[in-house]
């Protein structure tokens, strides 16, 4: 499940992606436009800056901006940065695997196998979705039946 941190991070990135090239936005403006608590947004934007998604500039003309074009920012990377692994349970995670205390044989566990398939499906969509597509489709691209989104990711 996407946390509020992940949701607010995506909302802030959409806000920044809509800026003209070279333009920056102050945290107060992003927070007020998107109804995000400023203090929480401070933490979120700092994490996104530290992961290379954003850049910040102090002083006049300062603020936050995307560090690269929206077409080069993957939604999967953003969500992993803010919320951690995409897997619904730890034993299905590729990056944060932890065996379950109650599982005698993880390789044969049907719950783990099913949740691994769920993780793979989520990763397939989010790792192929760019911020540019997310903004252009209003997030619609994550729907399984969106043929335009799938066609644009086939290349």
What does the model show?
Strands 1-2 form a two-stranded antiparallel ribbon. The chain starts with a helix and ends with a helix. Helix content is 48%, strand content 5%. It has 7 helices and 2 strands. The protein has 155 residues and is mainly α. Residues 142-155 have low confidence and may be disordered.
What is the typical, i.e. mean, pLDDT?
Answer: 88
Sequence stretches where pLDDT stays below 50 over 5 or more residues: 142-155
Main beta sheet strand tally, sense and closure = 2 strands, antiparallel
The portion of residues assigned to helices is 40-55%
Order of helices and strands: HHHEEHHHH
| Total beta strand runs | 2
Determine the structural class based on helices, strands and strand pairing.
mainly alpha
Taken from the alpha-carbon principal axes, the silhouette is elongated
* Strand line-up across the major sheet: 1-2
| Beta-strand residue fraction | 5-15%
The radius of gyration is: 18 Å
Number of helices: 7
From the N-terminal CA to the C-terminal CA, the straight-line distance is 29 Å
What order do the helices and strands come in, and which of them pair?
Layout: H1 4-17, H2 27-34, H3 38-50, E1 54-57, E2 63-66, H4 75-83, H5 110-126, H6 131-137, H7 147-153
Antiparallel strand pairs: 1-2
Provide keyphrases for this structure.
single chain; 155 residues; mainly alpha; two-stranded antiparallel ribbon; disordered C terminus
Concise description?
The protein is mainly α and 155 residues long.
